[in-house]
Design brief:
With 437 residues, this protein is an alpha/beta fold. It contains 14 helices and 15 strands. α3 packs parallel to α4, α7 packs across α8 and α13 crosses α14. The longest helix has 20 residues.
């Protein structure tokens, strides 16, 4: 697995740089300052920011926290760049004096600012990053990383869902036995590839014939698809967290005669169809919850209604999964501060946050859960710890929490649905019209 060397910035951020990259009011004597770190330009970054904004507005409308202290939001732009992400965290810690930081960062950027979090000891919640390596750091060096929480299921949990989908749908239902992996050259791509490679063949009986690693700025996928087709695989598994719309739209326009599934972040937003110019049908992907095509519970519907009323037609017109994570996570972090008497001492807040557990039901059944694995807890299926990761359930019938992910599919008419697991399905898995079944 290829990891990127992350080099911390050795110099302070200048005032000119701050003026262009960071916005928001600085700390007043009685304010609780929340720092947002993420990309201002991306749909995922904006989803986290907006989820946090709505939660803060609702909390302030009820009188704030800690006996009436108001919450103020300060923002710092990572531009989805590791170095900029490090500078952004430094700004939130040193200049904004953030009490709590909520992140909409991609994996590589979170890995970049993680040492800064340890240095400043600021409680931090990641709502997008799913890299299992960060959770492993919390497990192995709890005292060092205890202020970190991740309320999206980590890669290891994601892989188990794909194994089940592979066994139940790809192998059993479709009869597929071989695959070629198209993997972007990122930490996310390497992590997912490692998990799929280790478990897909032995668990689902699907053999990996080849892995093609491509640069995230690739614009011509014709040679790559030709190579995948030449390998003679039954289907393609794509891993893309950056510019996934490009690989998806070219797959459709080139009428590649193989079904394509995998993990494509580009498919997870409601703008996907427009972003591909209507050339996105047939592609399926794992997605955290709530996803496109997901049946919403009453609590989630209320959040979406507030979101739409506040942001209108400004994209993303519908929050990505991490927008929901930010909304609930922000309220949990502030509730933990109320119970602990603030964010300091750190240990008191950490223990209070570990005990935050929001259970959301639909039609009387467990539908979503926003809780956290505690130190020493062992997940029964994988037999491992996930300290401070979201409390997922990866064993049907999913009655102790939501699954780690669902599988979504975009159809050729521009609609989308959840196709797996059955409890959450709103449609059926199909192959594109140009692919032989």
């Amino acid at each position: 697995m290829k990891f990127i060397k992350l080099i911390a910035s050795a110099f302070a951020v200048t005032a000119v740089m701050l003026a262009s990259a960071f916005t928001g009011p600085l700390k007043a004597a009685d304010d609780i300052v929340v720092g947002f770190i993420g990309s201002f330009a991306s749909d995922t970054g904006k989803s986290t920011l907006r989820g946090a904004e709505i939660a803060i507005e609702e909390l302030n409308a009820k009188g704030g926290i800690l006996g009436g202290r108001k919450i103020k939001l300060v923002t710092a732009d990572t531009r989805e760049d590791v170095t900029e992400g490090i500078k952004a965290y430094e700004y939130l810690a040193e200049t904004a004096k953030a009490d709590f930081i909520i992140s909409g960062s991609i994996d590589d950027v979170s890995l970049g600012w993680l040492p800064r979090m340890v240095e400043y000891k600021i409680p931090t919640l990641d709502t997008w990053t799913s890299y299992i390596g960060i959770i492993d750091k919390v497990v192995k060096e709890y005292d060092k990383y205890k202020m970190y929480f991740m309320n999206v299921a980590s890669d290891e949990a994601l892989a188990t869902l794909y194994i089940d989908f592979g066994k139940d749908v790809l192998a059993k239902q479709m009869g597929w036995k071989t695959v070629v992996i198209l993997q972007e050259d990122t930490a996310f791509g390497g992590a997912i590839h490692g998990l799929v490679k280790d478990v897909l063949a032995p668990e689902a009986g699907i053999k990996i014939l080849d892995t093609i690693v491509y640069d995230v700025n690739t614009v011509d996928f014709a040679p790559i698809f030709a190579k995948a087709q030449k390998a003679g695989a039954d289907f393609i598994y794509t891993i893309s967290s950056v510019k996934g719309q490009v690989v998806a739209s070219q797959y459709v326009k080139l009428q590649v005669p193989l079904a394509m599934t995998g993990v494509n972040v580009g498919t997870m937003g409601h703008e996907y169809w427009d972003d591909t110019g209507g050339a996105g049908g047939g592609v399926s992907s794992l997605s955290p919850l709530p996803s496109v095509g997901f049946a919403l519970d009453d609590t989630s519907k209320a959040f979406v209604d507030t979101y739409k009323a506040k942001y209108g037609s400004s994209r993303p017109v519908f929050p990505h999964f991490n927008g929901f994570n930010a909304y609930h996570g922000m309220k949990q972090a502030m509730a933990a501060a109320d119970k602990a008497g603030g964010f300091k001492p750190l240990d008191a807040w950490v223990k209070a946050m570990e005990n935050e557990d929001v259970i959301i039901k639909k039609d009387g059944k467990m539908w979503l859960r926003y809780g956290f694995w505690k130190p020493g807890e062992i997940e029964p299926r994988t037999k491992r710890e996930y300290t401070h990761n979201i409390k997922f359930d990866i064993t049907p019938p999913f009655d102790d929490g939501a699954p780690s992910m669902v599988v979504i599919q975009w159809y050729e008419d521009g609609t989308s649905a959840v196709v797996y697991p059955p409890k959450y399905a709103t449609g059926k898995f199909t192959v594109p019209s140009w692919v032989k079944k």
